[in-house]
User: Fold this.
Amino acid sequence: MKKLAFLFLFLSVSVFAQKEMPSVTLKSVNNKDFNVKSDFAEKDKLYVFTFWATWCVPCINELDAINENYAKWSKELNMEVIAVSIDDSRTQKRVKPLLNGKKWPYTVLLDNNQDLKRALAVANPPYTVVVKNKKIVYVHNGYSQGAEKELYNKLKAL
Assistant:
């Protein structure tokens, strides 16, 4: 039974891992439109979409941890991080002040209507989706200290 459950989990992750990125347009914090499928489509570049919210402490910890390594990673790997805020109408006014304090180098998109979140079936943040050539090649849910090293190793393998 355990083998069957593992096989089902493996197959469902494998099927999902080859899913194409949906064509959803979101606004950046600077009010510029980005289509997540067509605007992040450079051949063989890795796009790391991290879903976060201002009220999610593990999300902020993950983005801070990635930021500590981002300059090195982006020189070594052809990659870009896109931080997708899933803050709703009650909390979205906290996004810009938080970003001003953090000075993250990421492209930050606002998923105010939860369109991308729904399209990718994101349950809870932090949620990371790695896209290469418009295909989802890796998905990870949650964050614990050191998980950024696992992400880095996965990016190197891709």
Q: What stands out?
A: The chain has one domain: 20-157.
